[in-house]
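step=encode ok
step=design start
structure_in=
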């Protein structure tokens, strides 16, 4: 998909989320102490929990909760022939342009340019990186150029084209988006996005292989092996979660497009005479509903159907579930009906039959596949964006204050419960609170907090999206009589209401709330 990103308007929400992620330990830049490395990110203590909850949720719903999908884990480095068969060696490329002056590299289809025409004569060229208002911005640049050069006459409307369409004569005349000066852009060259590496001690061409750019090929390469285990019958799926690597020319928008990322993919194999369109729709709906279950609002989700003429020849249909990120509506989850293309090519390149024998119909065929493929990091970002809220509240003294609250769906919240002793310097309170903490810890990700006052602890937990806080106070110790003894307050993140609960009821109550 092409990014429709407005690079000029730096969205404040993204800045707030990036700052919160760093401050609270969700996401850090990789190797930050060495100045960072572009396109690589680290997940801190809360980010690792959040991501794990997303992965576990998907695995539970996609694999363990179904009897027609099995899960596998394949190696990141595979036989190089896999990538020849899949078409990645030949075709996994982006057209790329270098600016020789600034040493910056751009995707050719993201540089837009136009001749500046005054009274039917070309007087120069303008260029820029694509935005949501490329044509308008180029027109403004053309007007500025005309003014600067003090040229009289009628300026014609710009005719924007992307750099892949520049003629050899135009290339030296188009200004670099980095410097604003012409003469430094190279012609577009195809750049393979796979990271190369060598297996063994010798750095020879014959030992060259790649870090996988998608997890999907692991499922195709192991199709026969899974089939031979006898556990599966068509229709069935093979699912996997794992890291993928792409040497993206322009990694950007925080964790949205990075060079190392994680995918959750599933290949659903169906009979060659089955109704593929029905299964395609089934998996689009499944993915849509799953995204709602992790807290994404329906209002931010939409579907984009790839135009038939733009699909690869083997592809029957591809639908992307799009999410409204602060930087534009972008692809989140792709659901492709890929026919029998992948299995057939692996059969051809490996010499291993990929046919399935239908016992009932007594016939052999190469199964067709529906592939829902999603990035864990893109879901993580969509969840962070959807959860972020700022609210003005009034405290007990009537003073208004703003709280930042991450309204994570409880199933993905990094910390489920926080436990506080009302005062940290009263040993009986602390002792009782420790007891409650130990009771909850085996069941939920639980955090202990005894810093500052209760109000501050609530704000802290709100900012990291903890759905419930448990406070142990003097009533818990029975100071107001036996009725309240061994009860605690349970505070809800969203309503900010507190209820008095028996300690013995905490685990079943929170478990019930988590199940929704
Ligand atoms: N096997 C098909 C496949 O890999 P894709 O559309 O290239 O299809 C699937 O990738 C999903 O992986 C995307 O929808 C997106 O969520 C995620 N993804 C792809 N490239 C990514 C990147 N550079 N950074 C983060 N996520 C990415």
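sequence_out=
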């Amino acid at each position: 998909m092409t990014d429709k990103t407005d690079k000029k308007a730096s969205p404040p929400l993204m800045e707030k989320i990036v700052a919160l992620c760093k401050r609270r330990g969700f996401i850090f830049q990789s190797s930050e102490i060495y100045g960072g490395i572009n396109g690589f990110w680290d997940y801190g203590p809360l980010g690792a929990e959040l991501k794990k909850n997303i992965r576990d949720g998907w695995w539970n719903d996609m694999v363990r909760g179904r009897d027609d999908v099995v899960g596998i884990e394949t190696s990141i480095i595979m036989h190089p022939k896999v990538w020849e068969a899949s078409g990645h060696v030949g075709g996994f490329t982006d057209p790329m342009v270098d600016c020789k002056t600034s040493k910056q590299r751009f995707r050719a289809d993201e540089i837009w340019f136009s001749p500046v025409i005054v009274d039917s004569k070309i007087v120069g060229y303008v260029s820029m990186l694509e935005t949501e208002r490329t044509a308008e911005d180029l027109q403004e640049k053309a007007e500025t150029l005309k003014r600067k050069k003090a040229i009289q006459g009628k300026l014609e409307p710009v005719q924007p084209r992307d750099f892949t369409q520049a003629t050899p004569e135009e290339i030296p005349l188009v200004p670099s988006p980095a410097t604003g000066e012409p003469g430094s852009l190279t012609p577009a060259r195809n750049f393979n996005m796979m990271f190369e590496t060598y297996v063994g001690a010798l750095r020879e061409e014959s030992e060259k292989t790649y870090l996988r750019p998608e997890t999907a090929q692991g499922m195709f390469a192991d199709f026969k092996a899974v089939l031979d285990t006898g556990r599966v019958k068509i229709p069935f799926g093979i699912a996997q979660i794992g890291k993928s690597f792409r040497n993206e020319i322009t990694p950007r928008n925080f964790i949205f497009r990075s060079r190392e990322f994680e995918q959750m993919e599933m290949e659903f194999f169906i009979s060659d005479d089955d109704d593929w369109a029905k299964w395609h729709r089934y998996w689009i709906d499944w993915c849509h509903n799953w995204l709602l279950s992790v807290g994404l609002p329906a209002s931010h989700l939409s579907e984009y159907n790839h135009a038939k003429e733009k699909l690869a020849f083997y592809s029957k249909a591809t639908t992307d579930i799009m999410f409204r990120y602060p930087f534009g509506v972008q692809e989140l989850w792709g659901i492709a009906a890929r026919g029998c293309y992948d299995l057939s090519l692996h059969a051809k390149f490996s010499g291993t039959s990929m046919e399935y024998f239908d016992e009932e119909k007594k016939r052999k065929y190469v199964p067709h596949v529906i592939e829902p493929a999603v990035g864990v990091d893109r879901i993580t970002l969509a969840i962070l964006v959807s959860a972020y809220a700022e609210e003005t509240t009034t405290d007990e003294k009537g003073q208004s204050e703003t709280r930042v609250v991450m309204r994570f769906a409880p199933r993905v919240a990094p910390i489920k419960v926080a436990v506080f002793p009302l005062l940290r310097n009263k040993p009986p309170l602390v002792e009782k609170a420790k007891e409650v903490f130990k009771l909850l810890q085996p069941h939920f990700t639980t955090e202990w907090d005894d810093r500052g006052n209760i109000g501050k602890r609530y704000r802290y937990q709100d900012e990291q999206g903890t759905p419930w806080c448990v406070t142990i106070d003097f009533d818990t110790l029975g100071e107001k009589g036996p009725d309240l003894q061994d009860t605690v307050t349970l505070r809800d993140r969203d309503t900010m209401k507190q209820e008095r609960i028996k300690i013995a009821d905490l685990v079943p109550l929170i478990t019930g709330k988590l199940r929704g």
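step=design ok
step=annotate ok -> The chain has a mean pLDDT of 94.
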